[in-house]
Specification:
Length: 87
């Protein structure tokens, strides 16, 4: 997954269906480094509640800029959305 996302401009990694606590360490490292523009957050709601997922995202201890890209900016860019982050 990481190799494909890194190699191809139009390939992105979706993290839905897994709580962030269960992401493979390689995905977290990719997200924190050269893949910060290539990974999109997904909660898989209603099976995984947004509140529970957000608790796990905070536990990843991403810096604020990377966390914002992961939660909002990357999806807005990929899907050409005008959405504002949920406050």
């Amino acid at each position: 997954m990481i190799g494909l996302a890194w190699k191809h401009d139009n390939v992105f990694i979706d993290t839905s269906a897994y709580l962030p606590a269960y992401y493979p360490p390689q995905i977290i490292q990719f997200l924190r480094t050269y893949g910060r523009d290539k990974v999109l957050f997904g909660s898989n709601f209603p099976q995984l509640s947004l509140a529970r997922c957000m608790t796990h995202v905070k536990a990843l201890e991403l810096n604020a800029k990377i966390q914002h890209k992961f939660l909002f900016d990357n999806a807005n860019r990929v899907f050409n959305l005008e959405a504002q982050p949920y406050a």
